[in-house]
Model the fold of this input.
Amino acid sequence: MTLAQRGRWITGVALLLLAGVYVRALVFTPEEIHQGLAQKIFYVHAPAAWSAMLSMGLVGLSSILFLLVKDPRYDRFAAASAEVGTAFSVVMLTTGPIWGKTIWGTWWTWDARLTLTLFLFFLFLGYLLLRGAVTEPGLRARYSAVLGICGLVLLPFIHLSVYLFRTLHPAPIVLKPSAPSLPPEMLVTLLCSFGVFTLLYVGFVTLRYAIGDGGERDA
Amino acid sequence: MLWAEDLGHRYGAVRALDGISFSLTPGQTLAIFGPNGAGKTTLLKVLAGLLHPSRGRAHIEGGRHAVGWIGHQSQLYGHLSVLENLRFWASLYDVDPEGAVFARRATDLLGRLGLEALEHRLVRVLSRGQLQRAAIARALIHDPRVLLLDEPFTGLDRVAAGELRRLLAEEAAEGRVTVLVTHNVEEGVELATEIAFMRGGRFVQLGARGGRDAAAVAAAYREAVPGA
Amino acid sequence: MRKTLRHAWIVARKDLLLEFRSRTAILSAVVFTALVLVIFEFGRDPTAIATLDLAPSILWVTFSFAAMLGLNRAFQAELENQALDGLLLAPVSRISLYWGKLLANLAFVAVVETVGLLLFTLFFNVPVGHILLPLVGVIALATTGFIAVGTLFSAMVIRTRFAELMLPVLLLPFLIPPLVGAVQVTAKLLAGRPLSEVGGWLRLLLAYDIVFVSLASILFPSTVTE
Done:
């Protein structure tokens, strides 16, 4: 089976499983007492944020490997991971505020997860823009790798900044989706969701990697 | 003094250098002729240490300190004077700009290049010819044993080209090793003691110039590298 | 090590000499800073919001712009006559190059920020004398953070299309931790709070500086060598 076919298979299976998780979350998982239906977004949100972070982590790791070994495949992988990460970030950044507006009336809260994803999104965007602005493949790969590593190192600092900021400026009491302390059905749903999103990540990246240079080959 | 052994350079599928080997002793000048894309500049960059080869090795006795580079860009700072530029570049090569060695070399070079009157002039107001000569001074200020020249005659008129040739001959007579790269056979032949034709990252011919004149070498070049 | 520093100093001094000779960049930066402050001054309504509330944000927006302007000129001179190739050919370590550029950029931005701070205290009547030392300290810490990453990135963007646009876009996420920290500390300082309250932020700023100066030093060679 070629890489692209394998990618399609994995993605297909993951999407099916995703549908399954949704069904489970909406129908079979008990509602949380205090937050009600709104809380169920959490089963999509937390894993989407996780996938975005996973993407960034792998971009960083792949970048380090590229700089050490100079194998163009690491660069291709990093690029694929960045694109997928962008997609996951966008999903979270759009569903989050929409849900927030309908349920609580505010578009945005400086929720730790949402904020981190926002900056992840900017990092990914910058990464993709940089790749778009450099035509020569060797140069592009090196520049991307440098940016990727810096981005990875930045993440803990952003997390710390948000944490410090929030301990000094406690958020207004807004209901935000969080992990309830967990009866087994909720935990299982959550874990399933994490698993499915990870699988989705693998599927998308495999596909993107297989399509590979298609979008980036210079004339 | 300078040797290369099975040099290769590639990124992904693009092979810019594919097994280059040669060696040079003091006083020798190697002229490398080849069409654009043959890998000439890549070879120079690997020799100079600007690029790491993917395989093989290159060695210049004395390392970076011993290398001078002349290309078609002057590598001079417009808002500094000629002398200030020389001081800056010399100091990067660990030549004390306040010392006697520098003073002597600077005076000597500026004299030979006809730039004495311009030493305090800002580089940005120099004419093209003056700029080129100042660039040569910059390349030579640290007394490099090896000169690498990347299409140095580009954009020079006949007078300037002749002056450059004269200077390079003087330098070779003093025992420097020169590697000159160009796509124009006529320009480099007189200076060369060794000749190489390059194509697709390889030397298709490498040997002493013998007594051949420009026309003979050009003919051999056209035969070895058809379509060039 | 000493050689590295010496070379870095030679590079920095050359940059500063060039800057002093041409003067365009520093003057534009100072004028721009003044302009930004003037706009803030005219835009505010002193009866609506206390100056002290806005002051840290105003100050740091101004300083961020100053840093950007400083960074934009960083490798320009090297590009003109391919002097960058000359620098790379010379027996100078890449780290010296980075440190030299870093020092020059810091000096440039320091000048602009000094003028900015002066104008700020003048326009907004905010007394800073009693907190001058800690204020300068936090300005130095945060600025070093921007400039460390910015110097690294400016080496990359000069060879891309739209260089002046790319730099702010790439730099934005990296400005957040030092900026947030700087604004918080500045606010506390202006409000007369004791330094102990901002210990966490100061430590964050310091850690950021150390980590990113080191990381940039390690990564810089990859942006210029092949």
